[in-house]
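Example A, followed by Example B.
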Amino acid sequence: FSPTPVIAPLLNLTLTPRPTSTPTPVPMPTRAPTLTPSFTATYTDTPEPTFAARACTIAPQGGFAAIYNREPALQQALGCAQSAAVPVNAAIQDFENGRMLWVSALADLPTGTIYAILNTGQYLRYADTWVEGVDPVQPVGIESAPSGRLAPIRGFGKAWALNAAARNSLGWALGAESGTGAQVQRFERGEMIFIAALNQTYVFMAQGSLWRLENAPF
């Protein structure tokens, strides 16, 4: 015998949810940020020292000082003096397109020097290598000069004959060379040479091989 199972009815329970409380947000106190001022760097350009600020140990002398001191651009071009002014022997000779100048020493340097001074405003410079009794007086391998013109001789002739740039630029000599006295002072980038026979001063600037003639005695 199997008894019929009695199934108890399920309780019909209605669950009432508990009310939930919604939290009210509490505003946080705001704090003004502390600003740190930014650093602004200030850059100051330091210019290169001008030539006037440089200390030259040797000053230009005589009439050279008057030419040098009145013109800052010339000071920049020549730089500081490298020697005292030195009296030397010299010679000059005029050409169709310029002049040749010889000095027996380059101030304190015992080296004879020849300048080919061109009418273009530039110059060429050569060491005087002519040796009396060894080199010929007349230039070798040069055609005869045209009428009214001369070929240079001795040191001028050797430099003129051996250097086509000087020969082609100067042309023929207009007359014979003549001796004179001179004063020479060396600079970092050039020379000043006073020519007694002209009572004028040549300024030779190495940069650009430029020259100019000043009506200034020594």
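Example B, a separate protein, is given below in the same form.
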Amino acid sequence: KSWPKTEAVLNDIFARGQPKPDIEHAGLFIHQFRVHGGHLQGAWLPNPLLASDVDWTMPDDLLGDRFSITLLSRQSPHLYSNAKSGVIMNPSVSKLLCAYAYDAGSDRRTCSPPDSAEYTASCVPGCGRYGSSNDDNPTYCNPRVNEIYCNHDNAGWAPDDFENFMMHHEDRLRRFAGKREPLLYSELVFDANTWVSGLPRTVDAIFFMDPAEERITKKVHAQLLHDFGLATNTVPLLRLNLTNSFSPFTRVA
């Protein structure tokens, strides 16, 4: 498939995203960098090198096996942060592990590293019971069993149940429409190994929202192009303005 996607294509995906079994038509898959206000080396990697102190409570080796993603579209214009920069992920070269219709706190659903004595191959990163470590029997949402809101203890929706995840998330948006519910974004968990092995095609674009982040995000963008020997007109750098519900992305570089 065509890569990288153009600004026009990304805006079109944003506008047309809707519940379908095909993940390619669901919307845009957004990963926001962990910090803002500080330069990140390899910000598109599972464990970027942070050039500033970060208040982060989980050790990196327990979070480097997955990426947390938010699904963004006109129907669901909600992100984890309205300030942090990030990447638009290419779902065609990535592997979905599970999906939640809400912020599921996937950093509290961990697996031990492969070189650890506690490692179990059946543990799915970010998809075990909340607060669990090495949960080797994740219980996914089941539309024939669970209520519309799956219990926070389970593992969200399985990859082959993506359409039900989308319907669950949109139902949640309708239920909270007009109410003061700040956490309307979804959380999808993707496999880090597949993400890294697919680079640079994993990244459709790099974006920023906060003008104060433009300079730093330009450095991240330039580093990505340099590290993979990409021409300046390949992976775009975009400005994201969510007040524009039709064409929120504008190309900067």
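On Example B: Residues 50-59 have pLDDT under 50 and may be disordered.
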